[in-house]
From TrEMBL:
The gene is 11436819. It is found in: Plastid, Chloroplast. It comes from Medicago truncatula. One of its GO terms (biological process) is heme biosynthetic process. The keyword Transport does not apply. Belongs to the ferrochelatase family. GO terms for molecular function: ferrochelatase activity. InterPro entries: Ferrochelatase, Ferrochelatase_AS, Ferrochelatase_C, Ferrochelatase_N. NCBIfam families: hemH (TIGR00109). SUPFAM superfamilies: Chelatase (SSF53800), Chlorophyll a-b binding protein (SSF103511). This is Ferrochelatase. It catalyses: heme b + 2 H(+) = protoporphyrin IX + Fe(2+).
Amino acid sequence: MNSPIRAPSTSSCSYIRPHSCRTCASRNFKLPLLLPQAICTAQKLHRCSGGHTEASSNVNPLKTCIVGKFSPGWSEAQPLVSKQSLNRHLLPVEALVTSTTQDVSDTPLIGDDKIGVLLLNLGGPETLDDVQPFLFNLFADPDIIRLPRLFSFLQKPLAQFVSVLRAPKSKEGYASIGGGSPLRRMTDAQAEELRKSLFEKNVPANVYVGMRYWHPFTEEAIELIKRDGITKLVVLPLYPQFSISTSGSSLRLLESIFREDEYLVNMQHTVIPSWYQREGYIKAMANLIEKELKGFDLPEKVMIFFSAHGVPVAYVEEAGDPYKAEMEECVDLIMEELEKRKITNAYTLAYQSRVGPVEWLKPYTDETIIELGKKGVKSLLAVPISFVSEHIETLEEIDVEYKELALESGIENWGRVPALGCEPTFISDLADAVIESLPYVGAMAVSNLEARQSLVPLGSVEELLAAYDSQRRELPPPILVWEWGWTKSAETWNGRAAMIAVLLLLFLEVTTGEGFLHQWGILPLFR
């Protein structure tokens, strides 16, 4: 597959980033992205800063018009929720937009409240012994491996089988980067720097870390939040772009925890689901890229290679995951910032870390590297665009596997932008995002513990997830309709049924130690 190679100029760019009120305003304003899909759709003509921008039909509806009412020229869009519901939960929309020149600490936001910030992240094994149980937790998540409902009872047995099968190779990878993932250590450091930054901005807050698949688990962080008596909580996933498989999975878990706990039901909270468009984040990424480019002999000849973590295509096409659209716009925003600095290198975006037989977002990173080598690219700067901390995908997959592949493909000069980590501009901007979200923290709209069906306020866990599925159904499988005959759907389902049967057979062989695979001496080959 040919991968798109893009230059910053709109005249030569292979695609044009859709314009929206949010995009237009992001140049001059900071805002937390608080459930924009609950405010308006993308098929309207809007007015931004006195100028009209028409949203094309392919504009991602998750990213348009949350800031629209700051302009007197706003034209009303069709809401996805009722005006009465919005009015109950929303402050005046003018308050959503905070000028970059405004001191966000000027207005008292705390009072007698105890502020907490919950950072959500993936987690990673800290030792080699942690690898297999970590992989089990990962693959037991239905947002990672999605089985048809009929076979949902196989989720944990399948996770056990896959984790045992993959553990040896994964251990090799973690051994090559020091024997474990540095993610917890780095996330703890980010939490501490965020706490300091908030304090410097006159917002004392406790910052907690909740991992999805390893310690400290989200449940552990919640217990600390309750112990400390937090009354207002800002939930901040450390994923710049929203995806069902990352932020969405963490928020689904958080939702289930909230619903079972009286304290949490009544605690005020809000969620910042994605923040890739924030000025501080964009500038921090541009700073790192600009610095690394200077290390090449001919910086202007370097191809900027954005590598993002992939997701299955079905997440985007069937489940409405905004990840791909947000990722593409994020890359555009970074390149626009670099262009302001007279950096006009060619660039491209590809997706890494695919697993299994299903189709993932393309172009793939490995295939794109080979293709660039064939096209004569000699200098490549890899930019891990979806990662804010170093972990195995950057330290082993990019630094080792993709670097080796690039050199074998004829690319002579290789560089890699480090993950943001505790970069000061980045941390300060995260603190601003937290502060700007505080006016929109609200209580769950329930009269008692039995009435837990109401949506919590704008940007909250449940309302955010409900925007993807108002009927609270599970995520759809890649093929929604079971069709009989020689159809793509039938072949897909038949293949899945056969695969599940084979995996179940292998699982029984592994757990019992008996069966024809052992008798024939086949199964030991997998160990």
